[in-house]
Amino acid sequence: MFSLNKCLVRACHNLSLTSIDDNGMITEDKCYCLDHSPNPGKLQQDIYLYIMNNDKIVGLNASGMTFMGIDLSGKKFYGCNFMHCTFTNCHSKGLRSRMSMFDFAVFTDCNLIESNIMFSSFAGCTFSRTLFTSSDMVQNNFNGINSIQTSFDDADLYNSRFIRAKLVNTSFRNCNLKKAFFCEIKQENTSFKMSNTREAVFSEVGSEIEMDTGHINDTSVRGEIL
Q1: Is the pTM of this model over 0.90?
Q2: What is the DSSP string of 99-152?
Q3: 222 pLDDT exceeds 60?
Q4: Coil, strand or helix at 173
Q5: Which of 10, 117, 218, 223 is the most buried (most CB within 10 A)?
Q6: Which residue(s) pair with 216 in the sheet?
Q7: How many CB atoms within 10 Å of residue 70?
């Protein structure tokens, strides 16, 4: 898991970014958060190079960084912190993640098709024109996300959580939704066609999909199962 070292600025409560030594290796040294680093450009560049030079990344803290046009295809992240990061135009086919934190990150025009992401958190994220098509996304936290023109088609979302998510022009076609929770969601033009919605939970805990009418059996959830 990533280090819980605090920023070297005493009054700051943020965690420090990962420190990379001259040999390109992660150290346990205390460092600054991105806001207080005296040389944020170098700090970020060191982390970029570490990611590019390693296929398996363990315990990296890159919180608050911006990743633009980066290719993370085939990279493996274990116990990493990408909270509050911004990902733009990132093509990352076959990315693998375990127990990593992406809370409140922003993904725009990103491609994560055929990824394998488990036990990770995307709470409060914003997804815009992002593809998770054909991915295994088991037991992940998507609570409170804002999803716009995003596709989870053909994904395995077993036991994942979308509580209080806002889903606009978002597709869950042909997905495994067994034990997935979509409680108190807001949706507009959202498709669950060919997905096993009867095995998911919509609205309040214990509610079911009313498949005979094609509508979710709760007035707080708008839209149809297309």
Answers
A1: no
A2: S-B-TT-EEES-B-TT-EEES-B-TT-EEES-B-TT-B-TT-B-TT-EEES-B-
A3: no
A4: coil
A5: 117
A6: 209
A7: 18
